[in-house]
Amino acid sequence: MKLTSSAPDTAVDPGSVNLLDSRFYAEGDPHALWARLRRDQPLHQQPALNGREAFWAVTRHADVCRVLRSHQEFTSRRGTMLCIVDLNMPDIAAGQMMPDTDPPEHTRLREPLNRALGMRSVQAREAQFRKIALDLLEPALDGEVFDLGQAALMFPMAFAGTLMGIPSEVWAHTARLTTMTIAYDDPDYQQGTPLDTLRQAHHELFAVFHEELKRRDRSDPGDDLIGVLMSMRFEGEPLTDEQILFNCYSLLLGANVTTPHTTSGTVLALAEHPDQYARLARDPALINTCVEEGLRWTSPASHFMRYAVSDIELHGQLIRAGEPVTAWLGSANRDDAVFPDPYTFDVARTPNRHVAFGYGPHFCIGAGLARVALRLFVSELASRVEGIEPAGTVDHLVSSFVAGFKRMPVRLTARPAALPLPGTLAAEAR
Amino acid sequence: MDDMRVTPSGEDIESELLHIFRKVLSREDISPEGDFFVHGGNSLLAMRLTETIQQSFGVDVPPRSFYRSPTVAGLARVVTDLCSTTPHHDGSEPA
Description:
The complex is a heterodimer of chains A (about 425) and B (about 100).
Chain A: H1 22-27, H2 30-40, E1 43-46, E2 55-58, H3 61-69, E3 74-75, H4 83-86, H5 105-116, H6 119-124, H7 126-137, E4 145-147, H8 148-151, H9 155-164, H10 171-182, H11 194-215, H12 225-231, E5 233-234, E6 237-238, H13 241-256, H14 259-272, H15 274-282, H16 287-298, E7 303-308, E8 312-314, E9 317-319, E10 324-328, H17 329-332, H18 367-384, E11 385-390, E12 395-396, E13 405-407, E14 409-414
Helix pairs in contact in A: 7-18, 9-13, 10-11, 11-13, 12-13, 14-16, 14-18, 16-18
Chain B: H1 10-25, H2 43-57, H3 63-68, H4 72-85
Helix pairs in contact in B: 1-2, 1-4
C-alpha cells in the first residue's frame, strides 16, 4: 500500500471502489479513498457484489475505536477479518480462538497468554532478541542493494518461534504459510484458487502446530506459549486440541503478518525523510517515538471486522443486527481530528494515539513484544547505519487485510564506527 | 528380513480412503467422487485426514496434491503413486 507523504487527492469516488478487491491495496491508493470517506461518508456501505455480503466501513479514529471497543454493540464471535465475507466462508475458529471471542470469555482466555507474553519473559530473553534484530540488519551493512522487504518477513518469526517453542528448522516454511493466509490473492503466494490457498495454508500451519503438540509430554508441556495453551484451563476445562491449534495460529499470525511491514515501512520512511533519520541518529531518546510513528505510518493490519449485535444508528444511517462492520485502522491513523499534519512522518510525534495495535479488549496481545523487537531493530539501525537510500521498485502485498511489502530494496551505508546504544530497551517497553 | 514390499491394490486403497473420509467427516454419505469440502470438510479436518492417511499408509500426501483433487478417487491416485515409490513397506504394519 502506498504510504503517502502528502495529503492525498480526495477526488476518488468511493462508489467506484470495491473494498474486497485485494489488488486495490497493492496498486491503488487506499489513503486517498480513506481521506474522502472520513470527510464525506464516515459510515460507508460496500454493497453486495458478486455474491458477497454487503458490509459497512468506518474510517474515523473515534468510530474505529468505538467499533473495536464496544463488544456489546459489535461482536467478534463470528470472526474478525474480511476474508470471511470475501470467500463466503464461515470462520471455523469462531468462538474458540481468542480474537473470535467477546468478554468475559475473552478475558479468561487472554489472561494466561498475557502472562506468558509479559515483559518478564521478554526481558529474560533480551540478549537473544537483540541478536535477532542484529541478524536482520547485518547482511545489509555491506553497502550492496538489500531487499529488506523479503528479509523482514522472517524477523517476527524468530521472536514468536522462540516464545512459542516452534523448532527453528520450520520457521522459514511456517513464515511463508502465514503470509499465504493473508495474501491468498497474490500471485506470488497463490496455490490454486484463493480459497484453496487459504485452506492449504491453514491446513499446513495446523500440521506444524499439531506436530509440536504430539512431540510434547501433556503432563509437562513446558512454559513457552504452546506449553501454556496445553496446560491452561478455560471455563474449568483444559483446551481441546482444536482450541490449542486455533490459538497457536492466531498468536503466530498476529506476529508474522504485521511486524515485518512496520520494520520495512519505517526504514523506507526514514530513507524518504533523511532529515528525520538524521534527527533520530542525533538523539537516541527518539527511538521509542520513532517506533510509534512507524507503527502509525505503516498500520500493517488494515482493518478488523465485527458484526452488529443489534440495530445501531450511526451518522444518520441504520446498521442492522447481524451486518458486518469493518474498522479501518490505517485510516484512523491518518485522521486529522487526532493527528496534526497526519501525512507528515515525524519521528518525535507526541502524543501519538495510533491504533496500529487495535483498541479495546482485543488490543494486540503481542504489542509489548513487537515494541521491543522494533526498538531493538531501530536502535541497532541508528547506531550502525549512516545513510539509507531507496534502491529500486517497491512491491506491495496483494491483500485487503495487510498493508505490506513483498520487495523493498534499500542501500545502507554503514557508519565507520557504531554509535553508542541507548540503555536497556525491554525495560522501557510498555 | 528380505525386502518383501507389499503394495496395496488400488481397490484396497480406495476403500480404506473412503473409510477414512467417513470417519474424519463423521458421515456415511460420501461417494468416491464426493468433494471433501462440500461434505463439511475444512482445513482442520483436512489436516486430520492427511495425518490419518499417514498413519494408515505410511505416506505423506503433499497438501498441494490433495487440494488439486479433494476426493476419495483423487486421493486414491495420489496414495497409489506414493505407495509405489515409497520404499518403506517391509511386510509389517507401517509405524
